[in-house]
Amino acid sequence: MAGRVGCRSSLLLLLLLLHVTVNVRQAGGEQQPHFLHQQRALNMSVQRGSTAYLHCRVADLQDQSVSWYRKRGDEIQLITFDFQTYHNDDRFALSYEQPHNWRLRIRYVQERDEGSYRCQVGTHPPLALTVRLQVVEAAVHILDERGVMLREKFYRVGSTIELQCRVADVPTATTLQLAWYRNRHRLNYDDVRGGVSVKTELRGSLARSWLRVGNAIRQDSGSYSCNVTGLAAASVTVHVVPDEYPAAIQRGVRSADQWRGVPLLLASLAFTLIHTLPHALSCCILAHR
Questions:
Q1: Fold assignment, 139-257
Q2: Of the candidates 217, 237, 234, the residue with the CA atom closest to the CA atom of residue 225
Q3: Which residues form the Ig-like domain (predicted)?
Q4: What value does the mean pLDDT take over residues 227-250?
Q5: Model-level pTM?
């Protein structure tokens, strides 16, 4: 009986030792600083003039330091060391985010800020994460149902207003917030006007949004704009006219290309009037006498 108890005790002790050994080994592995990013090289694009956050998530840092550097060719420039900033441009600063994100903040991003940034942990050997920053400027355009860029559009009373907003070069670090407005009044699904629908999609760096206003009335005329928060905006003038204005409806569209010749046409008309009007007036006066 005593032999069985001793055997069980020895077995329990052996299991306990194995459990402790496994936990110690696991703890030792977890205590080593490591990045919480799947890749050691990240690409990031931001809108010019916005605020960029370059993320560097480090787990189990212990007493190790974290630094941000910028690399330009063979030149390496220290930006931050732990919580201290050493850059002479106050747009750069560490913006620590709990629990372990040593992110670098760059305000009012400019084209000159493009390049490679390095987040480094002071282990031996050092751990390094590279972020390649690209600065872009999104382009916003409004098109009709045929895909023609617009500045002005005519619709019949009772027809459907169909406009498409196209946003190219959307930054990867942007949470897209797109809204349609008519004369500074935001158009929503629950708008009192009714018959308004909006569909928006984002695919890679291209965003598109479709606005439909059913059974158009004269009061739907105005300036329609597509606003992308923090990026840019575009607008188009919409005219809703009765059927007794067929010429305007047939003309229908004023595209961006069609407007290019307008200043030249006006200048030509002005030149003609300046040179012919005095002669015409003098002829009229002589005839009247």
A1: Immunoglobulin-like (2.60.40)
A2: 234
A3: 33-121, 125-237
A4: 78
A5: 0.56
